[in-house]
Amino acid sequence: MSVDALLTKRVRRHAPTGFSPQIDADDSRPTLAPSEEYSGWCFFVLYTNAQGIPSKRRLTLKSIEGYGHAQVIKAYCHERQQLRAFRIDRIRELVSLSTGELLSPALYFEECRSFGRITTGDKALFDFLKVLVFLAECDDEFHPLEREAIEAALTSYILRFGGSEETIPKLLQTIENLAPDGADFIASLARLAKHPEARSVGRLLENAMAAVVSSDGTVTSDEHEWLVAAIEAVRDLQS
């Protein structure tokens, strides 16, 4: 096999021969309708709760959440007949009900999050937004060009770290209701310093802060001081 062929080869994990996910025989709850059971977002999982008790579930995935990476899924549990949250690190087994494929929970859900294949909620992106809004409003004005710079920064974050672009309009709608103060600013920076890719986020944030402050064509002495202080804070928190 050539080197090029090796580089493009992808290995796909399959369920063991004859494997068929089974739900407890004494489960009297109604089964899924065929059209729902075998949709692309339906899974069989073996889940262990906080007390270490395992359970078998049939889930329909609704969204993926976390801080910079996939940590929790929101899914409709057909055994409990309600929407519930499940920690990905507690999923011991994950099988697609549409293909029977045995999947790695951490890798699969992170891939879905990164490529925006389903609704995602990245709390780090909201902290990223609050830092930029704080700088945009530190001169007591919020120029339309500053809003455009913030939108461009959010887009860059998603392109670099993954997520769904459909979340950007929703975040922009919250700007009018945001009034982050210095404490919020520092708290958001502290959380971003714990991002799985903190250094890369820090570099992107530095560029985004400079773009927001200079976007309206003028940089006041106050804005310059805040920008310098903000960049120093980013670097201090990452050191």
UniProtKB/TrEMBL annotation:
Gene3D superfamilies: TerB-like. It holds the Pfam family WYL. Residues 71-94 form the WYL domain. It comes from the Bacteria. This is WYL domain-containing protein. It comes from Sphingomonas ursincola.
